[in-house]
């Protein structure tokens, strides 16, 4: 199947988002993920939730998307977290919301891992780990060699970075001067069946990437302020990686840092409890924004 | 043919700014001039084959025409999933130039042979596969690959193969007749053509005239144009430097059944085993009975059986 040439997307222009607004967007994305996981009875809700704030920061604050033909690229390398990408793309006006109802369904619209042929905005067909990172490096190299000013971002998982291909790419990227490339490592410290540092010599990640010649930032992967600051730091000619310390299942108290939420399914009860938590948090955020604005006046 | 292919490729692409070559730490001498003169269009991808293939796919996603050059097991086997997911699944027109087809690296050892590569490529639906017989076909392959809109794999030998065609003005996607003959057709791909032609000349001396056809494009397999060259009910002997279960012969046999073709097929190829013999290239061909003498013997046996059957 080869999709026909698509029209360039017209997506909404954005005003600069405040940190509070980004947090509210993140909560909406988490709601969508919870609903998707519930309706489709699919796994990987924990992996999607840990990456929400990285994606909301990228899509609402960092990626240049307005000129679609010359847009910046984001490749979700840990594509088992596809729900976070689909939800963010809908929230950003790139993906049609009606496509979500066919996620992970028979005769559906969106597969559990990514197929770039199914919709504009899905930049690469990923799912097997240790591919998207290197595809993204290739794109960054391609833009660089052609003198095209486009940035490439990719999100990899901490389990994923056990793949040899990641370390092959880590060795070569600094030699290629890929200062248009940024990787984000989602360190949620839980993979399918254990913790990375329990099953291999995982840490120290910072030392490893620095030793390979990368520009390394360690950030709280749920702090939109820290993420934004790292993304916006002027480049020094080297490829960049953000070590994003995250919590698997972030935002839903009973899912946080629990191994089972790599695979567990969201029941009616989970959904109800989870949505309630997210809504309470959103209300609190909104009222603090209102209080702040009233103070300002 | 390896050097001829690369020379032609680099010559034809000399003015293309979108063209880029990644070598897998291979090609000493072959890329020296290009890598010096076109530093921004050449990269030694090192001994990091997975990264190399994904990198090539990523560059192709930005509109570049990338050729990856490596020894076949490291180009295709090590990276099967990268070739499958990143190049073929995403339908990117990357050129995979593989060297050391068949047993041409003997006695390098089994790790360096490629006698089952077509088993892998058969499972990749968007991939085109070319297996040139001589430097002239290799040249035509290079020109075709540069224009090809699909992912493409070229199965190249090494060096020193003689020219079987007078020039490279060849329809590389069509069966290429190297010798006429009514008694039987030998169909082959790759550098084994040298042995096939030698056998056919010796058979001529015995008044047996075989038709010799080179089929460089082994995937997709166009049986229509092939059958147009073969008289009905004539026996075809498929000769290839590849394992029996998964080569051109096997693909053709499947077509014969699926399309109910009136073809009588025989195979002469390498038996399915891991190679432990320590022989040079021609010694290996002799061992597996795919050298000129082995081919000649196979044809004579078929002729004897046909005569016995008619009695």
CATH 2nd-level architecture of chain A: 3-Layer(aba) Sandwich
List the secondary-structure elements of chain B in sequence, H or E. Answer: HEHEHEHHEHEHEEEHEEHEHEHH
The major sheet of chain B is characterized as:
7 strands, mixed
- Which architecture of the largest domain in chain B per CATH? 3-Layer(aba) Sandwich
Kindly report the name of the CATH homologous superfamily of chain A. Answer: Thiamin diphosphate (ThDP)-binding fold, Pyr/PP domains
Radius of gyration of chain A: 19 Å
Oligomer: heterodimer
Distance between the termini of chain B: 46 Å
Number of domains of chain B: 2
For the record, what CATH class of chain A applies? Alpha Beta
Radius of gyration of chain B: 19 Å
Largest interface: A-B, 30 and 29 residues
Neighbour order of strands in the largest sheet of chain B: 2-1-3-4-6-5-10
| Estimated structural class of chain B | alpha/beta
Provide a count of the helices of chain A: 10
The main β sheet of chain A shows up as: 5 strands, parallel
**Secondary-structure element sequence of chain A?**
HHHEHHEHEHHEHEH
In CATH, the topology of the largest domain in chain B is named: Rossmann fold
Specify the CATH class of the largest domain in chain B: Alpha Beta
Q: Quote the average pLDDT of chain B.
A: 96
Contiguous low-pLDDT stretches of chain B (5 residues minimum) are none
What descriptors fit this protein?
heterodimer; A: 297 residues; alpha/beta; Rossmann fold; five-stranded parallel sheet; B: 311 residues; 2 domains; seven-stranded mixed sheet; five-stranded mixed sheet
What would your notes on this structure say?
Chain A has helices spanning 19-40, 45-50, 52-62, 82-91, 132-145, 164-172, 196-199, 205-211, 224-232, 268-296, and strands at residues 73-76, 152-157, 181-187, 215-220, 240-245. Chain A is globular. In chain A, helix 1 (19-40) packs across helix 4, helix 1 (19-40) runs antiparallel to helix 10 and helix 3 (52-62) runs parallel beside helix 4. Chain A has 297 residues and is α/β, with parallel strands linked by helices. Chain A has one domain: Thiamin diphosphate (ThDP)-binding fold, Pyr/PP domains (Rossmann fold), CATH 3.40.50.970. Helix content of chain A is 41%, strand content 10%. Chain A contains 10 helices and 5 strands. The longest helix of chain A is centred in the last third of the chain and has 29 residues, at 268-296. A 5-stranded parallel beta sheet of chain A has the order 1-2-3-5-4, with helices on both faces. By secondary structure, chain B is an alpha/beta fold. Chain B folds into 2 domains: 2-155, 3-Layer(aba) Sandwich (Rossmann fold); 176-310, Rossmann fold. Helix content of chain B is 38%, strand content 19%. Chain B contains 12 helices and 12 strands. Chain B has a 7-stranded mixed beta sheet with strand order 2-1-3-4-6-5-10, sandwiched between helices. In chain B, helix 8 (193-205) links the parallel strand 8 and strand 9 (210-214). In chain B, helix 1 (2-12) runs parallel beside helix 7 and helix 8 (193-205) packs across helix 12. Chain A binds chain B through residues 2, 116, 124-128, 130-131, 133-143, 145-146, 148, 164-165, 168-169, 171-172, 176, and chain B through 17-18, 20, 40-41, 43, 45-46, 48, 50-51, 54-64, 81-82, 85-86, 89-91.
């Amino acid at each position: 199947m080869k999709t026909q040439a698509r029209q360039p997307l017209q997506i909404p222009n954005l005003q600069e988002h405040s940190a509070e607004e980004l947090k509210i967007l993140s909560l909406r994305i988490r709601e969508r993920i919870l609903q998707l996981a519930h309706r489709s009875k699919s796994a990987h809700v924990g992996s999607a939730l840990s990456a929400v704030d990285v994606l909301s920061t990228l899509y609402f604050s960092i990626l240049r998307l307005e000129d679609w033909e010359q847009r910046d690229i984001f490749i979700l390398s840990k594509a088992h977290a596809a729900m976070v990408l689909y939800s963010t793309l809908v929230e950003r006006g790139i993906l049609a919301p009606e496509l979500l109802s066919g996620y992970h369904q028979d005769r559906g619209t969106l597969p559990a891992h990514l197929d770039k042929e199914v919709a504009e905005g899905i930049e690469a067909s990923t799912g097997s780990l240790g591919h998207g990172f290197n595809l993204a490096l290739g794109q960054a190299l391609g833009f660089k060699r052609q003198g095209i000013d486009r940035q490439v971002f990719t999100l990899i998982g901490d389990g994923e970075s056990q793949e040899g291909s990641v370390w092959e790419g880590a060795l070569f990227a600094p030699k290629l001067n890929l200062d248009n490339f940024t990787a984000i490592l989602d360190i949620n410290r839980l993979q399918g069946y254990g913790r990375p540092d329990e099953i291999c010599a995982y840490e120290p990640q910072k030392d490893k990437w620095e030793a390979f010649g990368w520009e390394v930032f360690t950030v709280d992967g749920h702090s939109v302020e820290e993420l934004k600051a790292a993304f916006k730091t002027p480049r020094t000619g080297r490829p960049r990686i953000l070590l994003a310390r995250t919590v698997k299942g972030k935002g839903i108290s009973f899912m946080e840092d629990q191994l089972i939420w790599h695979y567990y399914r969201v029941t009616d009860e989970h959904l109800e409890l989870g949505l309630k938590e997210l809504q309470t948090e959103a209300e609190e955020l909104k009222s603090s924004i209102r209080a702040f604005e009233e103070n300002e006046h | 043919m390896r050097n001829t292919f690369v020379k032609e490729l680099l010559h034809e692409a000399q003015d293309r700014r979108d063209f880029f070559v990644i070598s897998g730490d291979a090609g000493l001498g072959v890329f020296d001039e290009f890598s010096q003169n076109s530093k921004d269009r050449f990269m030694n991808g090192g001994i990091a084959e997975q990264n190399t293939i994904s990198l090539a796919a990523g560059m192709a996603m930005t509109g570049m025409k990338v050729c990856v050059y490596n020894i076949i097991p490291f180009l295709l086997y090590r990276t099967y999933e990268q070739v499958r997911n990143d190049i073929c699944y995403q339908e990117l027109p990357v050129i995979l130039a593989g060297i050391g087809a068949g047993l041409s690296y003997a006695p390098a050892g089994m790790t360096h042979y490629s006698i089952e590569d077509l088993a892998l490529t058969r499972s990749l639906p968007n991939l085109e596969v070319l297996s040139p017989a001589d430097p002239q076909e290799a040249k035509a392959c290079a020109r075709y690959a540069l224009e090809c809109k699909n992912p493409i794999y070229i199965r190249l030998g090494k060096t020193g193969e003689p020219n079987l065609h007078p020039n490279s003005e060849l329809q590389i996607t069509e069966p290429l007749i190297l010798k006429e003959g009514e008694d039987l057709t030998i169909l082959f791909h790759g550098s084994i053509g040298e042995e096939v032609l030698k056998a056919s000349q010796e058979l001529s001396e015995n008044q047996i005239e075989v038709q010799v056809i080179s089929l460089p494009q082994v995937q997709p397999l166009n049986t229509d144009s092939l059958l147009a060259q073969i008289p009905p009910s004539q026996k075809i002997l498929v000769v290839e430097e590849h394992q029996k279960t998964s080569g051109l012969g096997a693909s053709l046999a499947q077509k014969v059944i699926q399309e109910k073709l009136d073809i009588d097929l025989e195979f002469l190829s390498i038996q399915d085993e891991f190679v432990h013999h320590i022989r040079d290239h021609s010694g290996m061909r002799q061992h597996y009975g795919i050298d000129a003498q082995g081919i000649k013997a196979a044809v004579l046996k078929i002729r004897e059986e046909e005569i016995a059957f008619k009695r």
